[in-house]
Amino acid sequence: xxxxxxxxxxxxxxxxxxxxxxxxxxxxxxxxxxxxxxxxxxxxxxxxxxxxxxxxxxxxxxxxxxxxxxxxxxxxxxxxxxxxxxxxxxxxxxxxxxx
Length: 99
Description:
This protein is an alpha+beta fold. The chain is 20% helix and 16% strand.
């Protein structure tokens, strides 16, 4: 709906089975419009996603988040499972400066 809570307290809490997952519910009539995305916010989000999507070994940036906490790298670097070339962006080429 493009709204944010607007500073007021939630009116209810909805829980999924077991109570491990839940969400706050707010009144729509007290909500305010979301703040627009700024270039600084977009840059910060891209930087955070790049950290989750880039393999530290081969420096490829994938289109999905990598299991960096458990494996520490992409599957190709971890165990040799070949990665589909359409699933990542190759790292930028190293520039050679003229001597």
